[in-house]
């Protein structure tokens, strides 16, 4: 397969923005037509003298060279894609061009602070320039592209531009000194064909891509370090004032500025830098739930193919962090990979953490705390390692941390039941504990052999390893914190449900508004057909003159917490309801009410709670008071100021046999869940 010439795509960006966007979108339409109907000859040919093609497309400098690289052939006044050109190659150019066009059209938000000692993009008219835009060392630039009138170069920020140079806010060029495979190529030390152990060596080699000096400089230029540092300093000042006012004597409670900077980096990465991808949206109708039709591998990169409106879109799952700095999107693998690298850009000792439970994250060494800190950039969560087991309800079997100078089995940090962990490992049979320890020792030696460490530095690394092993063993039986009991937030609800990470913690609590306090009433209802809650005030005669005070879309928007619950739509029967997720044996959902904050209590309560059960399934309702006592009698809530309504679904021969709020999709004015309370 032909190599994707990224330089030709990037070279287009030196044109005026408006002309570039028009040209890029025109070419994308041409390529989409070819991909959609490859047998239609009319889509494969464009006439050069066509006014629209000449003005919108070929007027942009570098466009013809790009089209020739894609596979177009110039002949008799036309540009034609022959039938022997691989569609896979056309798709790859199409996806990369689309990504770059979107970045140019909608550039990153912050460019207001230039990091000290970083690199930025400048526009140079120097005749000594010998190459056009370059992003990777694997790109071969044809002579035509090498004579561009201007080029994008990397220049240290703060340096003085020459008279002919004009600093721009163009997208920064990301560049490494070597191709991805060259950056991660090392002699193998793990013998045999054990799948787990071979994967450990692969991941251990892969994190070495972070140590490329040119790539580190490119990554550093993307971080608004001054802004993040200012926020960290402000937080530190607040901490110091808080500790001073509380007359605390333990100075170890004060966090370090570097730890607080890590918090700010994590928040910025999630909010502004990286984007989560559930599925690629349709470019025709805008549907964000396109169908995954297949997964393939192109040039060693896994590719997910999505379909909608007769079009196919390709999502490349890059492991190359250089690519991720350009695309800035993906799922947990891409997030952790890119975030761990940015931590290295700021000088942190950082690990890429891999779990066989299909999730990855980061660990960062804290000098202040003298231990590794768990960081999940997808969730913007720090130092909550038990959340996967206790919040996400995942079984933890193997978790490994990979750094430039170490490999460690850190599983023991992410579970507090070490006996059951060992039992799972023995039953799984992935490898023996002896073989695992031997492999880790070999990989650790391999990594440290490549370091230019003094004997004192090597001694500190060994001590850190020993101290960590003791810390991991001491984690057995540790009680999870409140943060570690939280469910997952990254990814769409449907995506989390499919993966079995179904606990949804909205933590919404119903508290009476001023109007409800004045009226001494509280009313809430839910329509499953519209998937909408309505909060309302009754008139003098119940439904007569009632007034809706709030609407909230989504069954999970006003729940407190749920596990293994989702909203099912039956397309054939045209019915909707809440049910257990497929493959689960039980499920719960809770709604929380607190009238005590206004000094009120329940005087009278009515509840409609629609439920259907089949084949011996059960739906059980429990009313739980603030003291923890629970009852199945609705009357138990009288004179209660704070309570939780909990529904438990279980039994039956299928997940569908216990249903809540079942109704027709057309019954948009019916409410199978309604609660009416008179307050006193």
Give the CATH architecture of the largest domain. Roll
Which percent range describes the beta-strand content? 25-35%
Report the CATH topology name of the largest domain.
C8orf32 fold
Globally, the shape reads globular
What number of domains?
Answer: 4
CATH class type of the largest domain: Alpha Beta
Q: What's the rounded overall pLDDT mean?
A: 83
InterPro entries: Galactose-bd-like_sf (IPR008979), Papain-like_cys_pep_sf (IPR038765), PAW_sf (IPR038680), Peptide_N_glycanase_PAW_dom (IPR006588), PNGase (IPR050883), PUB-like_dom_sf (IPR036339), PUB_domain (IPR018997), Transglutaminase-like (IPR002931)
EC number: 3.5.1.52
Subcellular location: Cytoplasm
Protein name: Peptide-N(4)-(N-acetyl-beta-glucosaminyl)asparagine amidase
Describe this structure in words.
The protein is α+β, with helices and mostly antiparallel strands and about 675 residues long. It folds into four domains: about 5-105, Methane Monooxygenase Hydroxylase, Chain G, domain 1, CATH 1.20.58; about 180-240 and about 255-275 and about 330-475, C8orf32 fold; about 275-320, no CATH class; about 505-680, PAW domain (Jelly Rolls), CATH 2.60.120. The protein is about 30% helix and about 25% strand. It contains 18 helices and 32 strands. The strands form eight sheets. A six-stranded antiparallel β-sheet has the order 15-14-13-12-16-17. The relative contact order is 0.07. Residues about 110-170 have low confidence and may be disordered. Its cofactor is Zn(2+).
């Amino acid at each position: 397969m032909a190599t994707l010439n990224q330089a030709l795509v990037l070279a287009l960006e030196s044109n005026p923005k408006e002309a570039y966007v028009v040209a890029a979108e025109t070419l994308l339409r041409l390529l989409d037509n070819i991909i959609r109907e490859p047998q239609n000859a009319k889509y494969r040919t464009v006439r050069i003298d066509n006014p629209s093609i000449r003005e919108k497309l070929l007027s942009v400098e570098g466009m013809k060279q790009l089209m020739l690289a894609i596979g177009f052939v110039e002949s008799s006044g036309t540009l034609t894609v022959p039938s022997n050109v691989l569609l896979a190659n056309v798709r790859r150019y199409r996806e990369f061009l689309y990504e770059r066009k979107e970045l140019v059209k909608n550039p990153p938000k912050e460019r207001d602070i230039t990091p000290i000692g970083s690199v930025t993009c400048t526009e140079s008219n120097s005749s000594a320039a010998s190459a056009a835009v370059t992003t990777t060392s694997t790109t071969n630039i044809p002579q035509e592209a090498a004579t561009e009138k201007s080029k994008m170069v990397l220049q240290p920020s703060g340096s003085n531009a020459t008279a002919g140079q004009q600093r721009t806010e163009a997208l920064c060029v990301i560049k490494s000194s070597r191709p991805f495979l060259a950056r991660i190529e090392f002699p193998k030390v793990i013998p045999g064909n054990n799948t787990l152990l071979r994967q450990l060596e692969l991941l251990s080699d892969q994190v070495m891509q972070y140590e490329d000096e040119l790539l580190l400089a490119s990554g550093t230029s993307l971080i608004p370090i001054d802004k993040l540092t200012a926020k960290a300093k402000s937080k530190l000042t607040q901490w110091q004032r808080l500790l001073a006012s509380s007359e605390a004597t333990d100075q170890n409670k004060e966090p370090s500025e570097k730890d607080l900077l890590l918090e700010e980096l994590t928040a910025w990465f999630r909010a502004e830098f990286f984007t989560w991808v559930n599925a690629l949206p349709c470019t025709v109708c805008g549907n964000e739930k396109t169908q995954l039709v297949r997964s393939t591998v192109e040039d060693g990169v896994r590719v997910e193919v999505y379909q909608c409106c007769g079009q196919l879109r390709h999502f490349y799952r890059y492991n190359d962090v250089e690519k991720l700095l350009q695309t800035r999107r993906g799922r947990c693998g891409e997030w952790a990979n890119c975030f761990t690298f940015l931590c290295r850009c700021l000088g942190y000792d950082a690990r890429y953490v891999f779990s066989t439970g299909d999730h990855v994250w980061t660990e960062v060494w804290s000098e202040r705390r003298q231990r590794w800190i768990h960081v999940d950039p997808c969730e913007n969560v720090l130092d909550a390692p038990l959340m996967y087991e206790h919040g996400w309800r995942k079984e933890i079997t193997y978790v490994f941390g990979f750094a430039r100078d170490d490999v460690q089995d850190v599983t023991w940090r992410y579970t507090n039941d070490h006996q059951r962990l060992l039992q799972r490992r023995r039953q799984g049979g992935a490898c023996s504990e002896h073989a695992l320890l031997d492999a880790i020792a070999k990989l650790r030696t391999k990594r440290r052999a490549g370091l230019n460490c003094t004997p004192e530095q090597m001694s500190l690394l060994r001590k850190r390893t020993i101290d960590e092993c003791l810390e991991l063993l001491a984690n057995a039986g540790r009680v999870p914190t409140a943060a570690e009991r939280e469910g997952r937030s990254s990814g769409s609800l449907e995506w989390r449900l499919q993966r079995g990470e179904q606990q949804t913690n909205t933590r919404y609590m119903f508290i009476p508004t001023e109007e409800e306090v004045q009226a001494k009433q509280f009313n809430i209802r839910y329509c499953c057909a519209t998937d909408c809650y309505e909060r309302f005030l009754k008139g003098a005669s119940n439904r007569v003159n009632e007034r809706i005070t709030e609407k909230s879309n989504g069954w999970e928007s006003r729940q407190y917490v749920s596990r293994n619950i989702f909203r099912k739509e039956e397309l054939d029967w045209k019915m909707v309801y809440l049910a257990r997720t497929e493959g689960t044996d039980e499920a719960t959902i809770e709604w929380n009410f607190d009238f005590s904050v206004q000094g009120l209590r329940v005087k009278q309560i009515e509840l409609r709670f629609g439920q259907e059960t089949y084949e011996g399934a059960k739906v059980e309702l429990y009313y739980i008071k603030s003291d923890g006592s629970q009852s199945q009698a609705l009357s138990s809530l009288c004179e209660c100021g704070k309570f939780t309504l909990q529904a438990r679904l279980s039994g039956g021969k299928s997940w569908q046999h216990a249903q809540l709020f079942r109704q027709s999709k057309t019954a948009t004015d019916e409410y199978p869940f309604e609660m009416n309370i008179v307050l006193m």
